[in-house]
Amino acid sequence: MEDSDERPKKSKPSVRARADAIKQFRCKNCIAVIENPTDIKNIGTVIRNANALGVEKVYVVDPKHSLSDDWQDLREKPGISKTSVSAVKWTFVKRFDSTTACFDHLEKNNFRSVVTSPHIKGKRSIYLHQGDFTEYTKLAVWFGSESHGITDEAIERAEMCVSIPMFGMIESLNLGTSSGIVLYEVTRQRRAYQSAYRLRDRRGRRGEPLPLVMEPSEAR
User: Fold this and answer.
1) How confident is the model at residue 83 (pLDDT cuts 50, 70, 90)?
2) Which of 54, 45, 63, 64 is nearest to 23 (CA)?
3) What gap in Å lies between CA 16 and CA 18, rounded to an integer?
4) Measuring CA to CA, which residue among 12, 40, 31 is closest to residue 140?
5) Where are the domains of the chain?
6) What is the mean pLDDT of residues 188-209?
7) Which of 79-83, 93-97, 109-113, 180-184 has the lowest average pLDDT?
8) Could you say which of 29, 160, 161, 187 is the most buried, measured as most Cβ atoms within 10 Å of its Cβ?
9) How far apart are CA 95 and CA 75, in angstroms?
10) Beta bridge partners of 114
């Protein structure tokens, strides 16, 4: 028999076991929003980051209609599936025609938004490590386009601007990198909160905190 380097495909029971194991680590009511992305590859990268870090959903403001309105069609789209390393199959993604439509939907469902942007005059602005991302029960974290950044409307309607402190000669990060850094901190804080409390406003403290990381046997 010839040797093969191909890994055996996971059986359905093992996929279900994995889904059950990660369920308690997902961040409830946490959405990543990509506004006017110019490169479809970056959409896949953000979806991959969101899925890996436990973000519940991804919204995409897509005026050019680069994506399908049907999630099932989107899951089967080769470009998104490949760049997200199939994470789109396990992540709920919703598209919007405009920033206005997305904000209207979020606000109707009692979500508060923060945008990733350099400090903006006249707006509450913080560095990432200064933020308390458990302050809002429902939170949407916005990321702007690769070429133009976040829009003025998003800044105006958001609660605050969040930036990543940088200390190099080049003071910019690509969308995939910045979304990974920001979402890591946001989900780290919200997962710790969910571990300690069943309810908001620090009520319903758990007798035994939920685990913050998976055991090695569960992670496989």
Assistant:
1) confident
2) 54
3) 5
4) 31
5) 25-198
6) 75
7) 79-83
8) 187
9) 13
10) 141, 160
User: pLDDT (tens digit, 9 = 90+) per residue, 116-133?
Assistant: 987 677 788 999 999 999
**What's the CATH number of domain 25-198, 3.30.450.20, 3.40.1280.10, 3.40.50.261, 2.10.110.10?**
3.40.1280.10
- Name the packing angle between helices 40-53 and 175-196 (round to 10°): 20
Model confidence, pTM: 0.83
Q: Alpha-carbon distance 119 to 129, whole Å?
A: 14
Q: Scanning the structure block, which residue is given the tokens 């080049």?
A: 170
Dist. CA 178–CA 187, nearest whole Å: 14
Closest by CA position to 74, among listed 96, 97, 92? 92
Residue type, position 119, single letter: H
Tokens 């919200």 belong to 190
Q: Which two tokens stand for residue 158?
A: 């958001």
Residues 34, 102: Cα–Cα separation, whole Å: 10
